[in-house]
């Protein structure tokens, strides 16, 4: 790639970072939840809304994101990254602004705007910037993924401060205790609650400005310089029968032999049609394959990735939505709790860079083993933060965000390396559907089990999910053409 091409690639990365900066405000929900829940209890319905029940907003965000990422990948393959990202961004900004009206009506309408519509927009706009950046810089997949999704992780750093600075500039503490749960505290001060609806408009307007700039920087590279063993130099396209033969294998051993003499018809078109041009696969850690979605979902490797993302998502769902509610039990300082959330966002962003670098330096498998192991330790010991005070709470929350953030750098990298970059959009969208199920499962677990298990029991449960992810990763055996783990 020439110098100008590299600079154009880094501009695409910058556009992706800006877009993901707004999409990543999904993680500012945990900071917003006390204000939002308190407003609904006083001015809207239901008046008995709990923090555990309000976590369904975040669950719907993740559900919308998980279900629409496949759609985003499909639209991207048809219309390109710019238009697809714009569609998703408009949904995000519209969902946020409409929440200024819906929260006045009922919590259930807020689920639609701040939950589902916002999440659908995040899902549609999430993949195209990643795909665009990886096409420009295929030899730096881990770093590129890490940089772009670092913007996603860093969004809450900025907007946590905007939310708290606007809504609670005088650092007032929650002054009402739930008679049904004495550990839950809510705001009753009109000086805070009266500004909750307009805070949605303020945030949505800022999103829109940032998104327009980011979208304008996204553009696919020209299709040239393709080099692949399955590439037909004469036609510039892949031979359908060659592709079919190359994909009739178990992706847990990407370079295994195909069965000779099979009479099965492998020449049927794959999703989005073939023949198709091949991406320039310069990643030496890749398996060397380009598997379409229909083939990918029949491999053991896909289901191991999907299941690992599913169990890892439980801790993400729980901590992201309830860390501030937990902190309010023993820390009466709203500005400090918002600051913890902001620094957690920095660690969220930095973690994506770190785990992406680690996967580039070593392998996805090693990085994921370290991630799930360290995340389990943080979750299993978080209950001690109420005795360790502010310092321990700060370190543990930042540590958890640092570890779980790696999921969003490692899974797209693993998907691209195991199944190829050509279909990375729809393929990663399918892998990400596990988050939709994980969010729904997580919300049900939190709302039904928290009363019986308390904070201690929930932390043990979430740590257990991380241990399951660790075990699943040991069975992931995809290797590159040199026989090394991807």
TrEMBL record:
SUPFAM superfamilies: MFS general substrate transporter (SSF103473). Signal peptide: none annotated. PROSITE patterns: MFS. This is Major facilitator superfamily (MFS) profile domain-containing protein. The lineage of its organism: Eukaryota, Metazoa, Echinodermata, Eleutherozoa, Echinozoa. It is found in: Membrane. Keywords: Membrane, Transmembrane, Transmembrane helix, Transport. The chain crosses the membrane at residues 7-29, 49-71, 83-101, 107-131, 143-162, 200-218, 301-323, 335-355, 367-387, 393-416, 428-449, 455-476. One of its GO terms (molecular function) is transmembrane transporter activity.
């Amino acid at each position: 790639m020439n110098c100008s091409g590299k600079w154009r690639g880094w501009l695409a990365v910058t556009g992706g970072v800006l877009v993901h900066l707004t999409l990543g405000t999904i993680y500012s929900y945990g900071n917003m939840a006390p204000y939002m829940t308190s407003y609904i209890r006083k001015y809207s319905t239901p008046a008995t809304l709990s923090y555990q029940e309000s976590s369904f907003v975040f669950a719907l965000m993740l559900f919308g994101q998980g279900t629409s990422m496949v759609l985003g990948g499909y639209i991207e393959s048809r219309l390109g990254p710019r238009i697809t990202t714009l569609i998703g961004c408009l949904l995000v900004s519209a969902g946020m602004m409409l929440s200024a009206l819906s929260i006045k009506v009922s919590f259930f309408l807020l689920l639609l705007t701040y939950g589902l519509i916002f999440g659908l927009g995040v899902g549609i706009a999430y993949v195209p910037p990643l795909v665009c950046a990886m096409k420009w810089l295929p030899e730096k997949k881990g770093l590129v993924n890490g940089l772009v999704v670092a913007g996603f992780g860093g969004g809450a750093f900025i907007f946590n401060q905007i939310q708290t600075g606007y809504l609670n500039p005088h650092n007032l503490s929650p002054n009402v205790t739930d008679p049904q749960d004495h550990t839950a505290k809510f705001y009753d001060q009109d000086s805070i609650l009266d500004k909750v609806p307009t805070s949605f408009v303020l945030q949505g307007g800022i999103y829109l400005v940032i998104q327009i700039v980011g979208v304008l920087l996204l553009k696919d590279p020209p299709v040239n310089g393709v080099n692949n063993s399955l590439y037909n130099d004469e036609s510039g396209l892949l031979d359908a029968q060659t592709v079919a033969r190359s994909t009739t294998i178990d992706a847990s051993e990407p370079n295994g032999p195909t069965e000779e003499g099979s009479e099965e018809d492998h020449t049927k078109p794959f999703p989005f049609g073939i023949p198709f041009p091949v991406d320039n696969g310069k990643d030496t850690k890749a398996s060397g394959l380009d598997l379409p979605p229909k083939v990918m979902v029949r491999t053991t490797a896909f289901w191991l990735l999907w299941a690992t993302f599913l169990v890892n998502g439980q801790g993400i769902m729980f901590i992201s939505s309830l860390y501030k509610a937990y902190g309010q039990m023993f820390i009466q300082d709203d500005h400090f709790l918002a600051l913890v959330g902001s620094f957690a966002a920095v660690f969220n962003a930095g973690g994506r860079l770190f785990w992406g670098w680690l996967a580039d330096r070593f392998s996805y498998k090693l990085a994921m083993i370290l991630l799930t192991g360290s995340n389990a330790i943080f979750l299993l010991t978080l209950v001690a933060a109420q005795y360790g005070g502010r310092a321990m709470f700060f370190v543990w929350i930042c540590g958890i965000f640092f570890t779980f953030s790696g999921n969003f750098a490692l899974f797209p990298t693993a998907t691209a390396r195991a199944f190829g970059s050509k279909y990375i959009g729809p393929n990663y969208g399918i892998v990400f559907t596990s988050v939709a199920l994980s969010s729904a499962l997580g919300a049900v677990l939190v709302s039904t089990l928290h009363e019986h298990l308390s904070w201690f029991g929930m932390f043990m449960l979430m740590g257990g999910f991380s241990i399951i992810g660790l075990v699943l990763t040991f069975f992931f055996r995809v290797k590159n053409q040199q026989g090394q783990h991807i």
